[in-house]
Recover the amino acids of this structure.
């Protein structure tokens, strides 16, 4: 399996620091944002320290990683023309950055229709993707499955299929499956993931899944809330999530953890990464119910 997590990218080392962080977790892959996900401030490609990062990846046999587009990109917004125009402009630049860094997968939240309805939102997403995708584009945009909160689009496979159907160069599209989002949108990951995949295959071959976000959920099935939980501590549970990492169909698919950092009650300013522990737990295939306390104790000793 290719198992990793979200990592940061900042400081002088930039992408090199991202690779170092992933390696410190015992990861085989990773996902990063090219800057803060809440804004459009970005460094020039020449300042991302790509060559050194790629050299370290090659040294450790790490070949694949994923880039995630910022949340502020909303191609589905037909209410505010400036929001839509910014989304198109910035997505074009994100494709350039992703290619320059050496990844072929850019994960994108499809967008929210902000009250204008599903049909309007999907049409706007299609329009935007048709503006940014070209026949010679060497980056796939992986549309993420969403939880369905608010006016999100992408919480049903048929919505994603409608986007594919409208995009001219849809061979440049892929899907990113998020297990928490699937659960929260009503797909039973815990008890019938094979059934979920069969529903998916009504619209797409499994080869269209370019990335999996492996997250437990704080919510019951169909809650439409999108609140991630640490592996094994949520309503999906360890066994179901671990079994996904062992599926032959996803042996070469980056599986990325986006689980919450661990904090103590009343100490929200001190947060500890769970990824080294969760990756080890998934690789061993044994759930540790004391994981959270172990992370806290290890942080105190560090």
């Amino acid at each position: 399996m290719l198992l990793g997590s979200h990592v940061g990218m900042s400081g002088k080392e930039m992408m090199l620091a991202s690779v170092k962080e992933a390696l410190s977790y015992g990861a085989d892959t990773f996902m990063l944002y090219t800057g803060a996900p809440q804004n459009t401030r970005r460094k020039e490609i020449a300042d991302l320290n790509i060559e050194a990062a790629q050299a370290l990846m090659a040294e450790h046999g790490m070949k694949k990683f994923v880039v995630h587009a910022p949340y502020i990109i909303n191609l589905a917004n037909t209410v505010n023309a400036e929001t839509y125009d910014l989304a198109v402009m910035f997505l074009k630049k994100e494709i350039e950055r992703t290619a320059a860094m050496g990844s072929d997968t850019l994960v994108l939240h499809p967008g929210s229709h902000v009250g204008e309805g599903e049909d309007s939102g999907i049409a706007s997403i299609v329009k935007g993707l048709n503006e940014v995708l070209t026949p010679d584009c060497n980056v796939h945009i992986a549309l993420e499955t969403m939880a369905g909160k608010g006016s999100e689009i992408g919480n049903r496979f048929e919505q994603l299929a409608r986007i594919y159907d409208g995009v001219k160069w849809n061979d440049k599209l892929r899907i990113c499956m998020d297990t928490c989002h699937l659960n929260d949108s009503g797909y039973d990951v815990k008890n019938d993931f094979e059934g979920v995949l069969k529903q998916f295959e009504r619209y797409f071959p499994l080869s269209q899944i370019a990335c999996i976000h492996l997250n437990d959920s704080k919510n019951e099935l169909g809650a439409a809330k999108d609140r991630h939980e640490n592996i094994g501590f949520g309503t999906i549970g360890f066994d179901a999530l671990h079994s996904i990492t062992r599926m032959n169909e996803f042996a070469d698919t980056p599986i990325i953890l986006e689980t919450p950092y661990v904090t103590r009650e009343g100490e929200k300013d001190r947060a500890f990464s769970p990824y080294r522990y969760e990756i080890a737990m998934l690789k061993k295939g044994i759930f540790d119910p004391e994981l959270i306390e172990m992370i806290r104790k290890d942080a105190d000793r560090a």
The longest strand covers residues 173-178. The chain has a mean pLDDT of 96. The radius of gyration is 19 Å.
